Amino acid sequence: MLVFVLRRILQTIPVIFGVTILVFLMIHLIPGDPAQIIAGEAASDAQVQQMRDRLGLNDHLLVQYGRFLGDIMQFDLGNSIRSGNPVSAEIGSRFWVTFELAFFSTLLSIFIGIIAGVISATKRHTFLDTSIMVIALFGLSMPNFWLGLMLIQYFALPPLQWFPVSGWGSIEHMVLPVITLGTAGAAIIARMTRSSMLEVINQDYIRTARAKGVKEQIVTYKHALRNALIPVVTVVGLQFGTLLGGTVLTETVFSINGLGRLVIDSINARDFPIVQGTVLVIALLFVLVNFLVDISYRFLNKRIELD
Amino acid sequence: MAETSVKTQQAETKPPSPQLENMKKVYKKLKKNKTAMVGGILILFFIIVSIIGPVLTPFDPDAQDYTNRLASPNADNWFGTDHHGRDIFTRIIHGTSITLYIGFSSVLLGSVAGTVIGIVSGYYGKKIDAILMRSMDVLLAFPGILLALAIVSILGGSLQNVIIAVAVFSIPVFARIVRGSTLAVKKLEYVDAVRALGASDFRIIFRHILPNIMSPIIVQATLRMATAILAASGLSFLGLGAQPPTPEWGAILSQGRNYMWDDPHYALFPGLAIVVVVLAFNLFGDGLRDALDPKTKG
Amino acid sequence: MEPSSNIIEVNDLRTSFFTEEAEVKAVDGVSFSVPSGKTLGIVGESGSGKSITSLSIMRLIQEPGQIVGGEINFKSDNLLDKSESEMRRIRGNEISMIFQEPMTSLNPVFTVGDQISEAYRIHQGLSKKQALQKSLEMLELVGIPSPKDRLKRYPHELSGGMRQRVMIAIALACKPELLIADEPTTALDVTIQAQILRLINNLQDELGMSVVLITHDLGVVAETCDYVAVMYAGKIVEYADVQTLFESPKHPYTVGLLSSLPRHDIDQEELQVIKGMVPSPTNMPEGCRFAPRCPFATDLCKEQLPTLDDLEDGNQVRCWVYSDKWDGDPEVNVKDDYGTATSS
C-alpha cells in the first residue's frame, strides 16, 4: 500500500509540472503580441511596453517560467490587471462559493444517483427501471446551462417564485444551482451503480447470503451495495472534477460570484493573470482529488482482488 | 452432391471477410436494440434536416421583422420569433448543420490525433509511452470544459477556435482508449508472427493493429459527439464560441436568456434541440457499445 | 424420529428457465428422498441439472428460472407452499447449503466473523457479541487454527481450503437438519478435498444431520454417501444404495461413468470414456435422453422415454432393458457387456 502511494505520488509530480507549464504558456500562446492584446487595441506604444515589462515578457522563457514557478510556491499568482489586487486574493474570496456549489452538487449526485441506480438494478427490466434509465439519459444529454435556465423559468420566475433567480448564500439560493450542476453527475452515477449492482448481484457471495436466510433488502443494501459502490468511487471523483469545471456555466446562469464567473469575466476583460491563476488552482485541485480517489479505490479494492 | 461441391469451392476461393461478417453481426444486434435504433434514426433525421431543412423553411434565418418581435409560438412561427423578429424554428433548422459540423469536425480531429498518440504510445512503449501518457494526464487535469475554455480564451472566440478547443479536449480520452486496445492487440501472437516475417512497423500498425481497435474508437467517437456538442454549445452560450447572428443553438440560447421573463419560448426551443441531438448520439453510442463489446452488457 | 423416516422427499420437481426462444427444462420431473441422518449423493455431469435441483430445494432459483411443478416435502411440509419469509427462516437454519467456489462464495468486504455471526443474528436473534462468541466456537469446530485471529480476517486473507471451512462454519452455524453441499471440494486441491469431506462426515455424525452431496466425482460418492441418485439431462436415471450402485450398476450411463473411473482392484487396459455429449436442453432427444450415447439403444429407446421403475431390491432405474417392453437382446447384461458393446 505504501509503495503504491509513493508510486502514485511520483506519477503525480510530473503531471503537476506539466500543468504549471501549460498554464504558464497560456499567455505565450496568444496569437500576436500578448502585451498588445492584454493592454487593448487602443493602448499606446508606451502602455504596451509598460504591460510587457509588468508581465516580464522580455526575459528568456525559461527565466519567466522559473519566476512563475517560484511565485506559485509562495502562493503568489501575480496581480489582476483590471483591479490590481493579488490574484490569490481574488481567487481566495471566491473559492469557497465554488467549492460549496461543487461539493453540494456532488453530494446530490451521489445521493440521487446511487438510490436510482440501486432501484433500477433491483427492478431490472421493469417499467420503473426503463423509466429511470431514460431519465438518466436525458439528464446526461441536457446542457446544464439550459437546465438552469429552465429551472429559473419555472421555479424562480412568476408564478411560482419558490427560489431566488440568482445569487448565493442561503439554502434557498443553493437549491436550483445545485440541481443544475448535480443532474448530469446523478445520471452518470445512476448508470454506473446500476451496471455495477447487476454485476455484483450475480456473484456467488450474494447466493451465499441468500442461502443464509438474509432478507432480500439486506442482501441488496448490505451485501451487494457495499461491493457495487467500490467502482462507483472512481466516477464520483471524476465527477467532482467535472463539476469544478462545470461551475463556469452554472455560475454564469445564476450570477453566482464564484471562480467560474471570475474566469469568464477575466477572459472577457483579457485579465490573463486571473485566468491563469484560476485555471491553475482548479486543475491542481482536480489532480489532488484524483490522487485521493485512486488511493481510496486501491484501498477498497484490495479486499476484492483475488490473489 | 454437385451443388455442395460447387459451394465448397466457392467458399475456398472467396472466403467471406471476417470483418464483413462481424459488421453484419453488429448490425443485427444493433437492429434488435430498440434504443440504439431510436438514436440512429434521430441522427439520420438531423443529418437530413441539416441538408434539406434550410431549403424547406419558409423564412430567412436572418430576416428581421420588428413588427413581429418576440412572438409566441403560433401557426406561422412554430417556435415563435426572437428579439429581432426572426423565426426561431428557421434559425434552429439552419443551426443544425453548424452543430453537427462542430461536433463532427472536432471529434474527427480529436480522434485522429488521439489515435495516433495512443498507437504510438502503446506500440513503442517505454519512454515514448511514458512521455505521451503523462502529457495526456496533464491535459486530463483540466476538468470538464475548463481546457476548452482556456484554449478559447487564448485563441479568441470563434467557431473555428471552438472546434480546435473541443478537439484538444477529446484527444486524451481517445489516446488512453487506443493505447489500451493497442497493448491488448500487440500481445496477440500473430502480431509477433507478422513481425517475424519482416513486416514494417508502419505496415503492422495500419494492417493489423488499427483494424482491430476500430470498435472502441467508433463507440467512443459516437459518445464523444454528444460531449463535443454539449461543450461547444456551452462555449457559445458563454459568448466564447459562435458569435451572433450565427444561428448556433448555444448562441441563440444565450440571447434567449435575456427574454426569459416574458418570452420563455426563446430559450426553450434551442435548448430542446441540443437535448435531442445529444440524446440521439448517446443512445446510438450506448447501443453501439453493447453491440460491439458484449462484455459490457448491462 | 424413526430411523426409516425421510428428512426430505422430492416429488416430480420441475424447474425451467424461460428464455426468449424457449422453455429450458433444467430439472424435469425429479423425485428422490433422503432418509434422516443419511447422505444422498446426486451424481451427474455438468448440465445434468443437479445444481439446479439443490438450488430448487433452497428455493434460490433466480430469474429467468422458475420452479414450475412438483413437491418438496421437508419434515412433512411442502417447501413450495411456503411464503418467502417462511423460507428465509428455514434457509441457513434448518436447511443449509455450501457451494462449489470457496474463493468467490464469501463476501469480500465483510470479515469472516461478521459473515458467520450473521446467521446467528438472523435466526437466533443473538447480540453482536454473543454471535461472535458462537462464531468463534464454530471456527474451532471446523478446525481452523488460531480461530480468534481469523474472526477478524477478510476472505482474501485466507486460503481456498480455509475459506471452504468458513463456508461450512456458516452453513452449520445454526445446526441445520439438512445440509446441501454442491460440489464442495471440486475447486480444492486433492489433499484438502479429503480433509473437507472428512470434516463434513464427522460433523454430520456429531450434529446428526442429513446431507445431500452434489458431485460429478464417483470417488467422492463411494467414500461419503449412503444412497446415490444418478442424474442425466434433467432426470434421475438410477437410484440405489451406494453398495449396490458400485457392485451392480443397472443403467448404461451409470456403468459408463463407473468404467471411466480409474480402479485399483483390476487391471485396466484403458479408461472408458462415454462417447458424445450431454444433449443440449433446448434440443432433447425424443426418447430416452441417453439413447444417442448408449451402446445398447434400440428403436424403442429412441422413440419412447422410459419411466423410473422400482426394482426388486427397492432401487430404481430408468431404462427399457429392465422392462417387459424391451425389444433388444433379452440376455443382455448392461454391466458385463458394456465394454464389448462400446468397442464394437
Return the CATH class of the domain at 95-300 in chain A: Mainly Alpha
CATH class of the largest domain in chain C: Alpha Beta
The shape of chain C is globular
- Mean pLDDT of chain C comes to 86
Helix fraction of chain C by DSSP (H/I, runs of at least 4) = 25-40%
Biggest sheet features of chain A? none
Helices and strands of chain A, in order, run as: HHHHHHHHHHHH
Count all strands of chain C and give the number. Answer: 12
User: What's the number of extended β-strand segments of chain A?
Assistant: 0
Distance between the termini of chain C: 52 Å
Instruction: Please state the overall shape of chain A, judged from the principal axes of the Cα atoms.
Output: flat
What CATH architecture of the domain at 95-300 in chain A do you see? Orthogonal Bundle
Q: Report the largest inter-chain contact.
A: A-B, 50 and 44 residues
Structural class category of chain A: mainly alpha
Secondary-structure element order of chain C, as H and E? EEEHEEHEHHHHEHEHEEHHHEEH
**Global structural class of chain C:** alpha/beta
* Low-confidence segments of chain A: none
Taken as a percent bin, the fraction of beta residues of chain C is 15-25%
The name of the CATH architecture of the largest domain in chain C is: 3-Layer(aba) Sandwich
- CATH homologous superfamily of the largest domain in chain C, by name? P-loop containing nucleotide triphosphate hydrolases
**DSSP helix count of chain A?**
12
Keywords (chain A): Cell membrane, Ion transport, Membrane, Nickel, Nickel transport, Transmembrane, Transmembrane helix, Transport
Main location (chain A): membrane
Subcellular location (chain A): Cell membrane
GO cellular component, one term (chain A): plasma membrane
